[in-house]
């Protein structure tokens, strides 16, 4: 069975500090990994996905198959980054079935 | 371009009752999936619909059922409600069910169900 683990429920950092939100997964096949974000009073939305290898709002995430991780990183946190972040996995041939982690609340303090 | 809309936004039911939640997919999207998000948890996949048929199901009992209509809108029905069914129910649509487009899920704001 596939599983996504986000070990931190809450991560608090100061503005300008680096951010790393941890995500580990277990899946025997070739997964697709995503980060979704939910800002206060907004809907869940896609932040980035590993196949795109892109940087969105300064965030990047690299899929490490050896460590089965997909950590989300940003070198300098901004106040507007405060939100709930969910890591998600899509199995091969899984259509729209995503397995989500429990989420990490990021709080950027001034 | 309209997004995913869900109704109702909030509702309260009692144990044993039945509930129907509705979802209109984003324009141009033909695939709809439903997720349950309990308090403090991530969304959990219930099932998805494509071409008016269920196409993939998560670990939910048969009392969770759904429909998809020709206009791609969808309903989630839950029978014999239990206290643990209290959650936020999210609908998500996507342009397709396979390929890279299937990765792009657009979520609705959700329907918050409370079972007393």
Structure description:
The complex is a heterodimer of chains A (110) and B (116). With 110 residues, chain A is mainly beta. Chain A has no helices and 11 strands. In chain A, strands 2, 5, 6, 9, 10 and 11 form a 6-stranded mixed sheet that branches. In chain A, strands 3-8-7 form a 3-stranded antiparallel sheet, with no helix packed on it. A two-stranded antiparallel sheet of chain A has the order 1-4. The model of chain A has no long low-confidence stretch (mean pLDDT 92). In chain A, 0% of the residues lie in helices and 44% in strands. Chain B is an all-beta fold and 116 residues long. In chain B, the strands form 2 sheets. In chain B, strands 2, 4, 5, 6, 9, 10 and 11 form a 7-stranded mixed sheet that branches. In chain B, strand 5 and strand 6 (53-57) form a beta hairpin. The radius of gyration of chain B is 13 Å and the shape is globular. The mean pLDDT of chain B is 92. Classes of the chains: A mainly beta (110), B mainly beta (116). Chain A binds chain B through residues 4, 32, 34, 43-46, 49, 51, 86, 88, 90, 93-103, and chain B through 3, 31, 33, 35, 40-45, 48, 50, 55-56, 58, 90, 92, 94, 97-98, 100, 102-110.
Give a nutshell description of this structure.
The complex is a heterodimer of chains A (110) and B (116). Chain A has 110 residues and is mostly beta strands.
List keywords for this structure.
heterodimer, A: 110 residues, mainly beta, six-stranded mixed beta sheet, three-stranded antiparallel beta sheet, 11 strands, 0% helix, globular, B: 116 residues, seven-stranded mixed beta sheet, four-stranded antiparallel beta sheet
């Amino acid at each position: 069975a596939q599983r996504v683990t986000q070990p931190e429920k809450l991560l608090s950092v100061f503005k300008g500090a680096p951010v790393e939100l941890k995500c580990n997964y277990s899946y025997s096949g070739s997964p697709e990994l995503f980060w979704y974000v939910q800002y206060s009073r907004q809907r869940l939305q896609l932040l980035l996905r590993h196949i795109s290898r892109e940087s969105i709002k300064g965030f990047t995430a690299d899929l490490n198959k050896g460590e089965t991780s997909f950590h989300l990183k940003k070198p300098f946190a901004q106040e507007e980054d405060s939100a709930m972040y969910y890591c998600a996995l899509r199995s091969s041939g899984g259509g729209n079935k995503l397995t989500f982690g429990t989420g990490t609340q990021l709080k950027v303090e001034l | 371009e309209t997004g995913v809309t869900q109704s109702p936004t909030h509702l309260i039911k009692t144990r044993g009752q039945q509930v129907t939640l509705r979802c209109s997919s984003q324009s141009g999207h033909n695939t709809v999936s439903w997720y349950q998000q309990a308090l403090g948890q991530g969304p959990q996949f219930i099932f998805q619909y494509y071409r008016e048929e269920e196409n993939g199901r998560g670990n939910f009992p048969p009392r969770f059922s759904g429909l998809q209509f020709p206009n791609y809108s969808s309903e989630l029905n839950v029978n014999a409600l239990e206290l643990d069914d209290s959650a936020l129910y999210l609908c998500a649509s996507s342009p397709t069910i396979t390929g890279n487009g299937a990765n792009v899920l657009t979520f609705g704001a959700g329907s918050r169900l409370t079972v007393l």
